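Predict structure. Chain length: 105.
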Amino acid sequence: MTQPIWNSLEVVKLAASFLTPLSVFIIGWFLNKQLKQQEQTQLRTQKAWEAQLNKDSRSQHRLTEKKIALYDQWSSKLIALYCIYRRVAYPKDPSPVQDASAQQL
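Prediction complete.
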């Protein structure tokens, strides 16, 4: 009698030798796809944050310009009020300030 060339053990060995690389390829492909998707999500999130930062930066710049304009408008009046409160002199009139400092010595 002749024995069969292919017994069940040989078939399982052959199937395992083909399925192992195939399963590694499928798992690697799936992981690669998931990682690329996650990377794209992170890039979109980062771009959204950068856009929000730029928007906030522009708003901050406009606010600073408005503050400077207000300071330019009100600074001379505030300095005059401070000088009057301290009873030093009116601004742009240095002679009473010099006299007051000479009296304190």
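Summary: The radius of gyration is 41 Å.
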